[in-house]
Amino acid sequence: MPTAKITTTSLDSVVVEPLEIRSGRTTCLVFKPEIVQNSRDKEKTIRG
Q1: Is the predicted pLDDT of residue 1 greater than 80, yes or no?
Q2: For residues 15 and 34, what is the distance between their CA atoms, to the nearest angstrom?
Q3: Positive/negative CA dihedral, 7, 13, 16, 18
Q4: Measured distance CA(35)–CA(6) in Å, rounded
Q5: Which domain of life is it from (predicted)?
Q6: What is the sign of the dihedral through the CA atoms of 1, 9, 11 and 21?
Q7: Residue 25, C-beta contacts closer than 8 angstroms, at least 6 positions apart
Q8: How many CB atoms lie within 10 A of CB 33?
Q9: Beta strands 28-31 and 19-23, pairing class
Q10: CA atoms lying within 13 Å on the CB side of residue 24
Q11: Can you tell me the distance from the alpha carbon of 16 to that of 35, in angstroms, rounded to the nearest whole number?
Q12: For residue 16, pLDDT beyond 80
């Protein structure tokens, strides 16, 4: 499993370096997640 760099942005969130999902000759699909502590909805902890 690849590792990713995680950077804390506040007490309630961190950003993760973009993860390459798929790449082709002219395009690249990346996932840029942000992990958050969502007090309103505990199921929604990842943005991206």
Answers
A1: no
A2: 4
A3: negative
A4: 9
A5: Bacteria
A6: negative
A7: none
A8: 17
A9: antiparallel
A10: 3
A11: 8
A12: yes
Distance, in Å, from the CA atom of 45 to the CA atom of 13, rounded to the nearest integer, reads 9
Dig out the tokens for 24 from the structure: 């082709």
The percent of residues in the chain predicted with pLDDT above 90, rounded, is: 73
As beta bridge partners, residue 16 has 6
C-alpha torsion sign, points 11, 41, 43, 18:
negative
The set of residues, in sequence order, having a beta carbon less than 8 Å from that of 15 and lying 6+ positions away, is 6, 7, 9, 32, 33, 34, 35
- pTM beyond 0.90, yes or no: no
Task: Please give the distance of CA 44 from its chain centroid, rounded to a whole number.
Answer: 13
pLDDT value of residue 11: 92
8: tokens are 């804390």
